[in-house]
Amino acid sequence: MDPHCGWxxxxxxxxxxxxxxxxxxxxIEILVGGMWLGSNAPKGGIHLSQFISEHSPRMEQVTGADxxxxxxxxxxxxxxxxxSLEPSCAIVLVKKMYSEKVMNFAKEVQKAIFIEGKRLDKIxxxxxxxxxxxxxxxxxxKYWMTEINISNTKSExxxxxxxxxxxxxxxxxxxxxxxxxxxxxxxxxxxxxxxxAVIR
Length: 200
Description:
Elements: H1 6-10, H2 12-21, H3 46-63, H4 69-74, H5 85-97, H6 102-114, H7 123-132, H8 138-143, H9 147-163, E1 169-174, E2 177-183, H10 188-199
Antiparallel strand pairs: 1-2
Helix pairs in contact: 2-10, 5-6, 5-9, 6-7
């Protein structure tokens, strides 16, 4: 998944359903993909705003996800770069801190931008989420954008790239074998049946 990926955001409820379905039998791990990095990360402005406005309605219609007016306002903000690095670093760090809470944290990060239009290059966006989740923030504040956490995050980008070709993607891993369950937005019930078939 990628924090700036609209289809990943639209798929978050389905991931919740899978997590609950298999919580006692399968270890579920989120891998961040690094969709928009460096010079490939778009800045807000008229071109990005038009692109998002053209493509967002279909995602909303298919997934049922809500996209807030504050998000569309952010897409016009020329001072904001839609970089995947900062939110991905946040997710990777929380996964290290509290692996059992990272899926909910990632979902809240997506809601922060797609509903509330918050900048994900500012630590305040994450501290608010952490406090809402009753997670102590001192460790996060110390390590979020440090060299070691950035390195760990980039390593995860490589892992994701070696497995998936797009976002979101869902795989079932057994030893070194990866079975593709879904690529793109998926139906949770169909995915459950596919996973059970592979397990059998």
